[in-house]
């Protein structure tokens, strides 16, 4: 029996979520044939078979989170595998065991103490990780309805049982949202945030113009005025970039994505709109290549398209700045000494004060405002 463990899919990923299996036990597969689809914190990718053979057993099901190095597939037969694809052996505690008083002995590494107050039905099966989840949520496994193969209780079954115990629901962190937690914690630890805000009079073009395209152009203008804003802060110095690789925040139900508009300063307005549409479409169907999801030199959050005037955005290190655009609204302003109703766009800037001075930030914002207030 040969085992295929989850390989490192790149960029230091530690775990993935199984989306769907493309094969079943008993199937004959050939090398490089897709075995399953998994979701990383950035994209959905297919994991190919490392070699040919007959599938004996699949480990995990849709919705399970699998760590790199954990076993995915057992083969009955096949040619010698590529050793580079084998990462390690599955820990014994990940074996499926019967629940009950003897769980700890069977699992080899289960809880040191039996689950208090909850005695699962002896006919139910669950992975140790599922039993731990049930314990943390206070779920009696005997009341969970098994939906897994051979009567196994899955994590989704436990979550469903937990939801039935009250009006609240439990949503485990997975994929993009789990990655977002890590990024925000890193930003909180590493960045010294400061902010600047202002308003731009966009009355001259807002009715016919494209706000996002204009914002891209204005940020490029700001970076030309203050190159230190288009940079990364790395310990003892700043890495200043010649090209503006702009990260654009995209809100989805799965969480926040930040695809990168490469070399934004070299694009015409129509090209900017076309490429942004392509990035958003790639996010929606999860087809965007990983290289377009990292490497931004500065970021934009156009949260005003949803709502809100000003925001305290989070700088994602090693970047040093993020620009926020609020909801355009009508305001009475003085124009040549007379009151007029004009459309204004609130602007916010958060910057890492370790790498950027207040003067640099203010001049950067001033250049952005000046570009946004041009007639065209």
Question: What's the gist of this structure?
Answer:
This protein has 376 residues and is an alpha+beta fold.
Write the layout of secondary structure elements.
Layout: E1 2-5, E2 15-21, E3 28-29, E4 34-39, E5 44-48, E6 53-58, E7 65-67, E8 71-78, E9 97-98, H1 103-107, E10 125-126, H2 128-137, E11 152-153, H3 155-163, H4 175-190, E12 193-201, H5 211-225, E13 231-234, E14 237-240, E15 246-248, E16 250-252, E17 255-257, E18 260-261, H6 269-284, E19 298-301, E20 321-325, E21 329-335, E22 338-352, H7 358-372
Number of domains: 3
Given as residue ranges, the uncertain stretches (5+ residues, pLDDT < 50) are: 78-122
Q: Biggest β-sheet, characterized?
A: 7 strands, mixed
Radius of gyration: 26 Å
Strand content: 25-35%
Helical stretch tally: 7
Strand tally: 22
Within CATH, the superfamily of the largest domain carries the name Chloramphenicol acetyltransferase-like domain
Integer average pLDDT: 84
CA-based shape = elongated
Helix-strand string = EEEEEEEEEHEHEHHEHEEEEEEHEEEEH
Give the C-level CATH assignment of the largest domain.
Alpha Beta
Explain what the structure shows.
This protein folds into three domains: 2-90, OB fold (Dihydrolipoamide Acetyltransferase, E2P) (Beta Barrel), CATH 2.40.50; 93-163, Dihydrolipoamide Transferase, CATH 4.10.320; 178-372, Chloramphenicol Acetyltransferase. The chain is an alpha+beta fold and 376 residues long. The model is unreliable at 78-122 (pLDDT under 50). The N and C termini lie far apart (68 Å). Helices cover 23% and strands 28% of the residues. Strands 12, 15, 18, 19, 20, 21 and 22 form a seven-stranded mixed beta sheet that branches.
